[in-house]
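ugh ok fine here u go
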Amino acid sequence: MSAVTTPAAVRRPHLTRWVLRLHRPELLIWAGLVLLGAALLLWLGGPLTDAAADGWRQYKACHWSEKCAYDQDAILRYKDTYNYLTFPLAALPLLVAAWAGAALTGRELESGTARLAWSQGVTPARWLATRLALPAAAVTAGTSLLVFLHHRAWVAARGRVDTLKSQWDWWTFQTNGPTTVALSLAALAVGALAGLALRRALPALATAVVTTGGLWGLAQWIMPHLWPTVTHVTSFGHASGYSSPGLGVDQGLVTRTGGHIPEPRCHADTWEGCQRLFEKRGGVGFYYTNHPDAHYWPLQLTTSALVLALAGLFTVAAFLVLRRLTGALRLPKGATA
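structure:
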């Protein structure tokens, strides 16, 4: 007596293979982009960094001599390559959003392929779960590798290349930590939701890209407020003024009562003239609120956690929209969500 194989047991592996076969070109393109980016980042963090560091050593040894020779080309080459690799890496979530909105769900609903799959016994919920899980794994693996190599290249140049961007530079901050991975996963969920809601590829693509751009801006705006700040107070006579290492959040004047007010605009030609203006407005010193370098990783992790929470909400919304959509389509009994 032969064992009975249930339809679900037969269909389950085929859905994964079908998704892989359907999106094989995109998967190969993604793998190629990741491998190319990884190779370029290894080049940036190795030979390019060493050459630029040598150029800066030569420059500092010149002592402003008129007959000084240093490798300026290596310094500029490093600076340009760093920017050319950092900006595209930061823009990866937009690419993921465009693909997810256009190809992952929007095109499938527009062409009727999705409903065909549902009519053959694949539940809409499992259809969407599979279509989200496989790209999520590829996106996480690829962006994590690129972010790791970008941070490795940045560390290799720290203290050696004078034009190296600060770790608080927003482009560097995003591409040096897990925020790019979190934003890419959120972009995947946003694209899937846009495709399900609009059911057309091009409108879903545009909506997903714009929404992901807004999410990117939200993360940038709210990041400094996700961890307690440190406030420094100095007198008017203090030479440092507002200068302090780290990420600046707020600055202004300290009043006699200890309150904080914005610094008034001063057009005086001398510091003494500005100081008299500040004192006239009730100021007795400066305050400077910032995040020191020790807050770097707490801010990275809290920003990533916030973006991942939003990604979870977008994913839940996608399943809710799918449930409403499939209810309106009156699917066969065996393919209900």
